[in-house]
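Data deposition worksheet. Section B asks for the primary sequence of the deposited chain exactly as it was used as input, without tags or linkers unless they were present during the calculation. Section C holds the resulting structure in token form. Section D is free text for depositor observations; keep each observation to a single sentence. Incomplete worksheets are returned to the depositor.
Section A, Depositor: J.P.
Section B:
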Amino acid sequence: MNKKISICTLILALTLSARLFCGVYIHDEFAESHFFIKHKPTWKWEFYSPQGMSDLKFEDLSKEKQIEQNILMNI
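Section C:
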């Protein structure tokens, strides 16, 4: 019984670590996804660049897109 609990705890810890420290970047031009390891834990899994390939300045983005771009630059 202890072995089963230990295995379940290990699987849960590995899954939680993978969720917190791994992410997927969605490329805006080619619609490809790239797996990466984050340098700090966040619950967010999918990342994209709201600015993309456009010539928009950061200040011209909406408030929500500014937050998303800021998250992407800090990950």
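Section D:
The chain has a mean pLDDT of 89.
The two ends are 40 Å apart (CA to CA).
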